[in-house]
Design brief:
By secondary structure, this protein is of the alpha+beta class. It has three domains: 2-25 and 229-255; 56-139, wza like fold (2-Layer Sandwich); 142-224, Outer membrane lipoprotein wza fold like, CATH 3.10.560.10. It is 31% helix and 26% strand. The chain has five helices and eleven strands; from the N terminus they run αβαββββαβββαβββα. The chain has a five-stranded mixed β-sheet, with helices on one face. A four-stranded antiparallel β-sheet has the order 2-3-1-6, covered by helices on one side. The protein has a two-stranded antiparallel sheet with strand order 4-5. β9 and β10 form a beta hairpin. α1 (2-26) runs antiparallel to α5 (230-255). The termini are close together.
């Protein structure tokens, strides 16, 4: 009976050790210690998004003057009148040549600019017609696709202009246990080519990557481990250990009878 208990004990220890190994593989940012309450981590400098062809921008022009009302009437739809101001608001798609065409203001080149720079371009043209014109411009289709081994593969509509890889994965329900955390791919279109970055989420250096902060139309792909499935991982990984312990237990049982 004592020998049987010994074998069972050895088996339990082997399972526990293997489980610890699997758990460690699932953890993010493993290089950060648990003993320090607050740790400083270097991150990549944020670069404002640059507008691209096929982006959709919402342009809002506001004025309190009568000439503003006349201008907006010539510009077309989506005119709102208030007690103190007039407002026109439309969504424009950037052409393959990098332009938007606003009625009366004409064709404006904004691809390659930040939203603030593009707003200034529109503002400069608008004040030629309405001295007190105030312009707002925002990106409407900041989308990121998250696919592969995540809980909810999806295309995310991002509010604002900032989202990083960890935030996007969180919005997709996080990686499954099958996801390879040390090789997450970010696929980004850059002009007439495609760039693919490999990110290791197990190390905090991932935050220094220029691909850590995502851009519009980025694709985040989480590939599966080679032996997909936690059951397969567990059984195949622990099998040699179990066989070794069982063999050792049988030898002990045989020579101590």
């Amino acid at each position: 009976m004592r020998n049987v208990k010994l074998i069972i004990g050895l088996f339990a220890v082997s399972v526990a050790l293997f489980s610890c190994g699997v758990g460690k593989q699932l953890a993010y940012l493993q290089d950060l210690t648990d003993t320090t309450r607050i740790q400083d981590v270097r991150i990549a400098a944020y670069e404002p998004l640059k507008l691209q062809p096929d982006d959709q921008v919402q342009v809002t022009i506001t004025s309190r003057s009568q000439e503003g009302a006349a201008l907006f009437a010539m510009m077309g739809t989506n005119i709102t009148s208030g007690t103190s101001n007039q407002l026109v608001q439309n969504v424009y798609t950037i052409t393959s040549k990098g332009n938007i065409t606003i009625p009366l203001l004409g064709e404006l080149a904004i691809a390659g600019l930040t939203t603030e720079q593009a707003r200034e371009v529109v503002q400069k043209e608008a004040v030629e017609y309405v001295k007190d014109a105030m312009v707002g411009l925002s990106l409407m289709n900041f989308r990121v696709t998250v696919m592969g081994e995540v809980a909810r593969p999806t295309t995310l509509q991002v509010a604002g202009e900032k989202v990083n890889v960890l935030e996007a994965l969180g919005m997709a329900g996080d990686l499954t246990v099958f996801g390879k955390r040390n090789n997450v791919k970010v696929i980004r279109k850059a002009g007439d080519k495609v760039e693919v970055a490999h990110l290791n989420l197990n190390n905090s250096k991932v935050m220094r990557s220029p691909f850590y902060n995502l851009k519009q139309n980025d694709i985040v792909y989480v590939e599966p481990v080679k032996r997909k499935g936690f059951a397969a991982e567990t059984s195949l990984g622990i099998l040699p250990t179990v066989i070794s312990i069982a063999t050792l237990g049988l030898l002990i049982f045989r020579y101590t009878r």
